Amino acid sequence: KDEEKCSTTSEQVCNTVYEQSCTTVVEKECTTVTERECSYVNGVEQCWDEPREKCWDEPRQSCKQVPKQNCYDEPKEHCTTVQVPYTDYEDAEECNTVNKPV
């Protein structure tokens, strides 16, 4: 006789998910500004525009997508067919004739 035997095991299943990771970076920003310069030459004021570079640190947020494994255990049922020894019994009635002396 065939019987089905089943057992449950766990299999780990993983998916790749992406998470955003951000950091603050500082970048140097510069611009050219014009400043008015003046000086006296022989008692006469002379002025001109003097270009200067002005710089400062500018914070910026830098973000990137980082892959991450998302894993969990998933139950799986495994079944197999097993042959089991089987004996079939039948009820049988046996009759005997007995002669009784009269």
Please provide a written account of the structure.
- The protein is an all-beta fold.
- The protein has no helices and two strands.
- The chain has strands at 2-41, 44-83.
- A hairpin with a 2-residue loop joins β1 (2-41) and β2 (44-83).
- The protein is rod-shaped, with a radius of gyration of 48 Å.
- The protein starts with a strand and ends in a 19-residue tail after the last strand.
- The mean pLDDT is 88.
User: How helical, in percent, are the residues?
Assistant: under 10%
- Low-confidence region ranges: none
Task: Indicate the radius of gyration in whole angstroms.
Answer: 48 Å
Largest sheet: 2 strands, antiparallel
Oligomerization category of the chains in this entry: single chain
N-to-C terminal Cα separation, in Å?
53 Å
Overall structural class, as computed from helix and strand content, comes to: mainly beta
Order of helices and strands: EE
The neighbouring-strand order within the major sheet is: 1-2
